[in-house]
Amino acid sequence: MAKKSELPSRIAENKKAAYNYFFEERYEAGMVLHGWEVKALREGKVQLTDGYVLIQGGELFLIGCQINPLRTASTHVRPDAARTKKLLLHKDEIKRLIGKVEQKGYTLVPLNLHWKNGRVKCEIALAKGKAEHDKRDTIKEREGKREVERALKSRQR
Fold it and tell me: Where are the domains of the chain?
């Protein structure tokens, strides 16, 4: 078992979210997890790309986040990789998010999972979807940065 100081701070990142959404506000939420899920997270067996956050009954839930169980999981546990996980935020933050999400075009997107003081945290963002031309601009920008880096690298040699 890894000690708290040895744990990598980032567990998983949703790189697809930055391509598909503009981020308005970011929040850090705690997560309610089972023991086998925490062990699988330590091994990095998580996929966050298809995940999204849903508000039901004044509570936040992370849906679509896959945490694949380890093969050495206990025999008495029936792991469900696609289990809905509850996110923990303060009531006033949840109320603010409910008001914003009800506006047209806003959604809640998980950005990453990370360790903080030995606990798993999920960074979520209030996001607005990008139009197709915005996605093309993002691609052009990324390719431009790559070309500049290549030019600088070849110049240094």
Answer: 10-130
For 134-157, the pLDDT digits (tens) are 778 888 888 888 988 888 888 887
pTM over 0.85: no
Spatial distance between the Cα atoms of 21 and 134, rounded to a whole number of angstroms: 9
Q: What's the CA gap between 121 and 87, in Å, rounded?
A: 9
DSSP-assigned letters across all residues of 83-101: --EEEE--HHHHHHHHHHH
Distance CA 129, CA 105 (A): 7
Report the alpha-carbon distance of residue 7 to residue 94 in Å, rounded.
29
Structure-token match 């003081």, residue found: 117
List pLDDT tens digits, range 74-107. Answer: 666 777 778 888 999 999 999 988 888 888 778 8
Phi and psi dihedrals of 139, rounded to 5? -65, -45
> Residue holding tokens 């929040």?
27
Pick the CATH number of 10-130 from 3.20.20.370, 3.30.530.20, 2.40.280.10, 3.60.21.10: 2.40.280.10
What is the distance of C-alpha 149 from the center of its chain? 28
